[in-house]
Protein backbone atom coordinates (compact mmCIF):
# COMPACT_ATOMS: atom_id res chain seq x y z
CA UNK A 1 0.00 0.00 0.00
CA UNK A 2 1.07 3.58 -0.53
CA UNK A 3 0.49 6.68 1.58
CA UNK A 4 1.37 10.09 0.17
CA UNK A 5 1.66 12.73 2.88
CA UNK A 6 1.04 16.41 2.11
CA UNK A 7 2.86 18.33 4.83
CA UNK A 8 4.70 21.58 5.35
CA UNK A 9 7.04 19.76 7.75
CA UNK A 10 8.19 16.49 6.11
CA UNK A 11 11.17 16.34 8.48
CA UNK A 12 8.81 15.47 11.33
CA UNK A 13 8.27 12.01 9.81
CA UNK A 14 11.92 10.91 9.84
CA UNK A 15 11.87 9.36 13.36
CA UNK A 16 8.67 7.45 12.58
CA UNK A 17 10.03 5.98 9.36
CA UNK A 18 13.42 4.95 10.77
CA UNK A 19 12.70 3.82 14.35
CA UNK A 20 11.07 0.87 16.10
CA UNK A 21 9.67 -2.35 14.73
CA UNK A 22 7.33 -0.55 12.34
CA UNK A 23 10.28 0.64 10.27
CA UNK A 24 10.27 -2.86 8.76
CA UNK A 25 7.02 -1.98 7.03
CA UNK A 26 8.52 1.20 5.59
CA UNK A 27 11.89 -0.37 4.69
CA UNK A 28 10.18 -3.23 2.84
CA UNK A 29 7.71 -0.84 1.19
CA UNK A 30 4.79 -2.95 2.38
CA UNK A 31 3.75 0.51 3.57
CA UNK A 32 5.23 2.89 1.01
CA UNK A 33 5.33 6.43 2.45
CA UNK A 34 6.10 9.43 0.26
CA UNK A 35 6.31 13.00 1.52
CA UNK A 36 5.17 16.05 -0.43
CA UNK A 37 5.61 19.68 0.58
CA UNK A 38 2.99 22.04 -0.90
CA UNK A 39 5.55 24.84 -0.64
CA UNK A 40 7.34 23.17 -3.57
CA UNK A 41 4.23 23.89 -5.66
CA UNK A 42 3.69 27.48 -4.54
CA UNK A 43 4.54 30.51 -6.66
CA UNK A 44 6.54 33.66 -5.97
CA UNK A 45 9.83 34.30 -4.24
CA UNK A 46 8.42 33.40 -0.84
CA UNK A 47 6.60 30.22 -1.93
CA UNK A 48 3.59 31.36 0.04
CA UNK A 49 1.19 28.64 1.18
CA UNK A 50 -1.13 30.62 3.47
CA UNK A 51 -3.00 33.92 3.74
CA UNK A 52 -5.31 35.84 6.05
CA UNK A 53 -8.92 34.61 6.31
CA UNK A 54 -11.73 36.54 4.64
CA UNK A 55 -13.99 38.05 7.27
CA UNK A 56 -11.08 38.70 9.58
CA UNK A 57 -10.05 36.81 12.66
CA UNK A 58 -6.84 35.36 14.02
CA UNK A 59 -4.48 33.02 12.25
CA UNK A 60 -3.86 32.09 8.66
CA UNK A 61 -5.52 29.70 6.20
CA UNK A 62 -3.75 27.28 3.85
CA UNK A 63 -4.14 28.35 0.22
CA UNK A 64 -6.08 26.10 -2.14
CA UNK A 65 -3.85 26.58 -5.21
CA UNK A 66 -0.55 25.14 -3.86
CA UNK A 67 -2.45 22.25 -2.34
CA UNK A 68 -4.20 21.47 -5.61
CA UNK A 69 -0.95 21.58 -7.57
CA UNK A 70 0.68 19.31 -5.01
CA UNK A 71 -2.24 16.90 -5.26
CA UNK A 72 -2.02 16.92 -9.06
CA UNK A 73 1.66 15.99 -8.84
CA UNK A 74 0.79 13.11 -6.52
CA UNK A 75 -1.99 11.89 -8.82
CA UNK A 76 0.40 11.96 -11.78
CA UNK A 77 3.03 10.06 -9.81
CA UNK A 78 0.58 7.43 -8.62
CA UNK A 79 -0.91 7.05 -12.13
CA UNK A 80 -3.91 5.13 -10.83
CA UNK A 81 -7.07 4.43 -12.77
CA UNK A 82 -9.07 5.13 -9.61
CA UNK A 83 -7.65 8.06 -7.60
CA UNK A 84 -6.67 7.23 -4.05
CA UNK A 85 -8.86 8.84 -1.39
CA UNK A 86 -7.71 12.17 0.01
CA UNK A 87 -7.92 12.20 3.80
CA UNK A 88 -7.90 15.40 5.88
CA UNK A 89 -7.26 15.29 9.62
CA UNK A 90 -9.77 17.64 11.20
CA UNK A 91 -12.08 18.03 14.24
CA UNK A 92 -15.18 17.15 12.20
CA UNK A 93 -13.74 13.81 11.08
CA UNK A 94 -14.76 10.39 12.27
CA UNK A 95 -12.77 9.34 15.34
CA UNK A 96 -10.06 6.86 14.47
CA UNK A 97 -10.67 3.45 16.05
CA UNK A 98 -9.46 -0.13 15.69
CA UNK A 99 -12.03 -1.07 13.06
CA UNK A 100 -10.99 1.87 10.89
CA UNK A 101 -7.30 1.01 11.31
CA UNK A 102 -8.00 -2.57 10.24
CA UNK A 103 -9.84 -1.31 7.16
CA UNK A 104 -6.97 1.02 6.21
CA UNK A 105 -4.43 -1.77 6.82
CA UNK A 106 -6.09 -3.84 4.10
CA UNK A 107 -6.49 -0.97 1.65
CA UNK A 108 -4.24 0.25 -1.15
CA UNK A 109 -3.51 3.44 0.81
CA UNK A 110 -4.45 7.10 0.54
CA UNK A 111 -3.25 10.65 0.27
CA UNK A 112 -3.07 12.22 3.74
CA UNK A 113 -3.38 15.99 4.08
CA UNK A 114 -1.84 17.49 7.22
CA UNK A 115 -3.48 20.84 7.82
CA UNK A 116 -1.76 23.72 9.61
CA UNK A 117 -2.62 27.16 10.95
CA UNK A 118 -6.39 27.85 11.25
CA UNK A 119 -7.18 25.26 8.61
CA UNK A 120 -7.50 24.67 4.87
CA UNK A 121 -9.46 26.77 2.37
CA UNK A 122 -12.90 25.15 2.36
CA UNK A 123 -13.08 25.24 -1.42
CA UNK A 124 -10.17 22.80 -1.65
CA UNK A 125 -11.86 20.56 0.91
CA UNK A 126 -15.15 20.61 -1.00
CA UNK A 127 -13.41 19.90 -4.28
CA UNK A 128 -10.98 17.17 -3.31
CA UNK A 129 -11.28 15.73 0.22
CA UNK A 130 -13.08 12.37 0.33
CA UNK A 131 -12.71 11.49 4.04
CA UNK A 132 -11.90 13.25 7.30
CA UNK A 133 -10.39 11.69 10.43
CA UNK A 134 -10.06 12.93 14.02
CA UNK A 135 -7.95 11.51 16.85
CA UNK A 136 -10.33 12.89 19.46
CA UNK A 137 -11.89 15.99 20.93
CA UNK A 138 -8.78 18.14 21.17
CA UNK A 139 -6.80 20.35 18.80
CA UNK A 140 -3.24 19.81 17.58
CA UNK A 141 -1.01 22.37 15.92
CA UNK A 142 -1.10 20.34 12.72
CA UNK A 143 -2.18 17.06 11.18
CA UNK A 144 1.26 15.45 11.22
CA UNK A 145 0.83 13.71 14.59
CA UNK A 146 -2.53 12.34 13.48
CA UNK A 147 -1.01 11.09 10.21
CA UNK A 148 1.81 9.40 12.11
CA UNK A 149 -0.69 7.75 14.45
CA UNK A 150 -2.55 6.27 11.49
CA UNK A 151 0.65 5.15 9.75
CA UNK A 152 2.01 3.48 12.89
CA UNK A 153 -1.27 1.69 13.61
CA UNK A 154 -1.49 0.46 10.00
CA UNK A 155 2.18 -0.54 9.75
CA UNK A 156 2.14 -2.80 12.82
CA UNK A 157 -0.67 -4.86 11.29
CA UNK A 158 1.32 -5.72 8.18
CA UNK A 159 2.74 -9.27 7.90
CA UNK A 160 6.31 -9.59 9.13
CA UNK A 161 6.38 -6.33 11.09
CA UNK A 162 5.82 -7.67 14.61
CA UNK A 163 8.07 -10.45 15.94
CA UNK A 164 5.00 -12.55 16.80
CA UNK A 165 2.51 -12.53 13.94
CA UNK A 166 -0.36 -13.23 16.34
CA UNK A 167 0.45 -10.62 18.94
CA UNK A 168 -1.76 -7.90 17.52
CA UNK A 169 -4.71 -10.30 17.58
CA UNK A 170 -4.93 -9.72 21.32
CA UNK A 171 -4.57 -5.96 21.33
CA UNK A 172 -7.21 -3.94 23.11
CA UNK A 173 -10.32 -3.39 20.94
CA UNK A 174 -9.49 -6.40 18.74
CA UNK A 175 -12.33 -8.75 17.71
CA UNK A 176 -10.35 -11.61 19.29
CA UNK A 177 -11.13 -9.92 22.62
CA UNK A 178 -14.66 -9.02 21.55
CA UNK A 179 -13.56 -5.41 21.38
CA UNK A 180 -12.65 -5.28 25.08
CA UNK A 181 -9.49 -4.00 26.76
CA UNK A 182 -6.46 -6.28 26.95
CA UNK A 183 -5.47 -7.90 30.24
CA UNK A 184 -2.44 -6.76 32.31
CA UNK A 185 1.01 -8.15 31.48
CA UNK A 186 3.89 -9.26 33.73
CA UNK A 187 7.49 -10.40 33.28
CA UNK A 188 10.53 -11.21 35.45
CA UNK A 189 11.19 -11.02 38.34
CA UNK A 190 8.31 -12.92 39.92
CA UNK A 191 8.38 -10.51 42.87
CA UNK A 192 9.21 -6.83 42.38
CA UNK A 193 9.24 -4.40 45.32
CA UNK A 194 6.98 -6.74 47.27
CA UNK A 195 4.47 -7.20 44.44
CA UNK A 196 4.11 -10.73 43.11
CA UNK A 197 3.00 -11.89 39.69
CA UNK A 198 -0.57 -13.28 39.88
CA UNK A 199 -0.39 -16.96 40.75
CA UNK A 200 -2.59 -17.99 37.84
CA UNK A 201 0.06 -16.87 35.36
CA UNK A 202 2.66 -19.09 37.04
CA UNK A 203 0.42 -22.17 37.16
CA UNK A 204 1.30 -23.50 33.70
CA UNK A 205 -2.40 -24.38 33.32
CA UNK A 206 -3.36 -22.94 29.94
CA UNK A 207 -7.11 -22.97 30.48
CA UNK A 208 -6.72 -21.28 33.85
CA UNK A 209 -4.39 -18.64 32.37
CA UNK A 210 -6.80 -18.00 29.52
CA UNK A 211 -9.70 -17.60 31.94
CA UNK A 212 -7.67 -15.27 34.19
CA UNK A 213 -6.86 -13.07 31.24
CA UNK A 214 -10.48 -13.03 30.13
CA UNK A 215 -11.66 -12.01 33.59
CA UNK A 216 -9.04 -9.27 33.78
CA UNK A 217 -10.17 -8.00 30.39
CA UNK A 218 -13.77 -7.95 31.59
CA UNK A 219 -12.74 -6.22 34.83
CA UNK A 220 -10.72 -3.48 33.16
CA UNK A 221 -13.41 -2.87 30.56
CA UNK A 222 -16.14 -2.67 33.22
CA UNK A 223 -14.17 -0.17 35.31
CA UNK A 224 -12.65 2.02 32.62
CA UNK A 225 -14.63 1.57 29.38
CA UNK A 226 -18.07 0.16 30.26
CA UNK A 227 -19.40 1.09 26.82
CA UNK A 228 -17.19 -1.66 25.39
CA UNK A 229 -19.11 -4.23 27.42
CA UNK A 230 -22.37 -2.86 26.05
CA UNK A 231 -21.04 -3.21 22.51
CA UNK A 232 -19.70 -6.73 23.16
CA UNK A 233 -22.98 -7.79 24.71
CA UNK A 234 -25.06 -6.45 21.82
CA UNK A 235 -22.78 -8.34 19.40
CA UNK A 236 -23.22 -11.58 21.33
CA UNK A 237 -19.59 -11.63 22.44
CA UNK A 238 -20.15 -12.32 26.14
CA UNK A 239 -20.62 -15.92 27.27
CA UNK A 240 -22.81 -17.02 30.21
CA UNK A 241 -19.55 -17.49 32.15
CA UNK A 242 -18.57 -13.92 31.34
CA UNK A 243 -21.94 -12.62 32.48
CA UNK A 244 -21.74 -14.62 35.71
CA UNK A 245 -18.31 -13.16 36.45
CA UNK A 246 -19.50 -9.62 35.75
CA UNK A 247 -22.46 -10.08 38.08
CA UNK A 248 -20.04 -10.88 40.91
CA UNK A 249 -17.67 -8.03 40.12
CA UNK A 250 -17.43 -5.40 42.88
CA UNK A 251 -18.26 -1.85 41.91
CA UNK A 252 -14.71 -0.76 42.77
CA UNK A 253 -11.44 -2.06 44.19
CA UNK A 254 -8.51 -4.06 42.82
CA UNK A 255 -9.07 -7.08 40.64
CA UNK A 256 -8.41 -10.43 42.21
CA UNK A 257 -5.81 -12.97 41.22
TrEMBL record:
- Alphabetical list of Gene3D superfamilies matching this protein: 3.40.1280.10, tRNA(m1g37)methyltransferase, domain 2 (1.10.1270.20)
Q: Which domain of life is it from?
A: Bacteria
Query: Carries keyword Nucleotidyltransferase?
Result: no
Keyword field: Cytoplasm, Methyltransferase, S-adenosyl-L-methionine, Transferase, tRNA processing
Q: What is its main location?
A: cytoplasm
Q: What does this protein do?
A: Specifically methylates guanosine-37 in various tRNAs.
The protein depicted here goes by the name tRNA (guanine-N(1)-)-methyltransferase
The species this protein belongs to is Limnohabitans radicicola
Which lineage? Answer: Bacteria, Pseudomonadati, Pseudomonadota, Betaproteobacteria, Burkholderiales
What gene name does this entry carry? trmD
Amino acid sequence: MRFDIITLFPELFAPLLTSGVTRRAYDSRSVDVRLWNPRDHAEGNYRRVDDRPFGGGPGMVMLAEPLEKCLQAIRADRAEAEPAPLVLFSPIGQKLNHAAVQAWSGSSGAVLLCGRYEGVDQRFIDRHVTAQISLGDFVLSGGEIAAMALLDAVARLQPGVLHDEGSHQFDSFNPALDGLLDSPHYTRPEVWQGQAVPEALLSGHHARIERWRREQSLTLSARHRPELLVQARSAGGLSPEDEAFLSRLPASGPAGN
